[in-house]
């Protein structure tokens, strides 16, 4: 493998085409990398595929030499904001190159991949993005007021991941089979939730729960406890958030006592 596009032209099924295998290492799973690569390859008119493999992302791209070369650079320079690309390796593809017009696909993940195993980086949870926030507060949207809204750009990762490669089946979200609407978003390369592994909606995803209550009733029960000076532990991304009425001196004093934090700001 080399660190830059090699000089040798690989026959890629047609004159004037080259094919390369590009392996990207670093924090590249759970950060929307495969959807990003899919969009990029489609934009550049490249054929091929991308997949998660062990702790990295592997892809084979075929097309005009300039486009393939652009791809090698752009996987680093245009990577999703939560990715941390530390190494881009370029090599000849392991098998026959994708023929012209084959299109670009996301392949099932490989447990091992083609090279030596590398450090596996569990992606961090990412705060809700602007696009998801808009849906959250948009009454006609099917995720209006849905507290577990997320997409390929945001949402739980470390909180739900049990193993890599990063796929829904290796997260706790596998217990929530996707509804038809979510499944169609997940499979649509043009959708923000293309391969968004923890995607969920009110029809198929987790719901608010409070003892025997669910949904709005659960939320109202929690609100009543907070309004009454109580402290509620909200299970969220990365653990629990302790919630009380910040204007209620008694509630704040109880929270400080329980946290053994008499003065330091929360
Ligand atoms: Zn989002
Ligand atoms: Zn759904």
From TrEMBL:
Catalytic activity: an acyl phosphate + H2O = a carboxylate + phosphate + H(+)
Keywords: Hydrolase
Residue numbers spanned by region Disordered: 91-121
The organism's taxonomic lineage, starting at the top: Bacteria, Bacillati, Actinomycetota, Actinomycetes, Kitasatosporales
Organism: Streptomyces mobaraensis (strain ATCC 29032 / DSM 40847 / JCM 4168 / NBRC 13819 / NCIMB 11159 / IPCR 16-22)
An annotated Gene Ontology molecular function: acylphosphatase activity
Acylphosphatase-like domain residues: 19-108
Catalytic residues, chain numbering: 34, 52
Protein name: acylphosphatase
The protein's enzyme class: hydrolase
């Amino acid at each position: 493998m080399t660190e830059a596009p090699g000089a040798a032209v690989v026959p890629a099924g047609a004159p004037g085409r080259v094919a390369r295998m590009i392996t990207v290492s670093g924090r590249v799973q759970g950060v929307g990398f495969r959807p990003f690569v899919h969009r990029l390859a489609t934009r550049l008119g490249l054929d091929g595929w991308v997949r998660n493999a062990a702790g990295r992302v592997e892809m084979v791209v075929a097309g005009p030499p300039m486009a393939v070369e652009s791809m090698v650079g752009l996987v680093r320079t245009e990577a999703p904001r939560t990715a941390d690309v530390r190494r881009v390796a370029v090599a000849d593809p392991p098998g026959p190159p994708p023929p012209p017009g084959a299109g670009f696909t996301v392949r099932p993940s490989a447990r091992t991949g083609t090279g030596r195993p590398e450090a596996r980086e569990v992606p961090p949870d990412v705060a809700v993005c602007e696009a998801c926030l808009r849906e959250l507060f948009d009454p006609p949207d099917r995720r209006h007021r849905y507290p577990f809204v997320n997409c390929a750009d945001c949402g739980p990762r470390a909180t739900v991941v049990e193993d890599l490669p990063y796929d829904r089946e290796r997260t706790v979200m596998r217990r929530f089979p996707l509804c038809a609407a979510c499944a169609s978003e997940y499979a649509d390369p043009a959708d923000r939730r293309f391969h968004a592994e923890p995607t969920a909606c009110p029809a198929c995803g987790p719901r608010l729960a409070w003892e025997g209550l669910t949904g709005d009733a659960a939320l109202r029960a929690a609100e009543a406890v907070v309004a009454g000076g109580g402290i509620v532990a909200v299970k969220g991304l990365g653990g629990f958030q302790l919630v009380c009425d910040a204007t209620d001196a008694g509630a704040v004093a109880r929270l400080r006592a329980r946290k053994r934090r008499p003065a330091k700001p929360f």
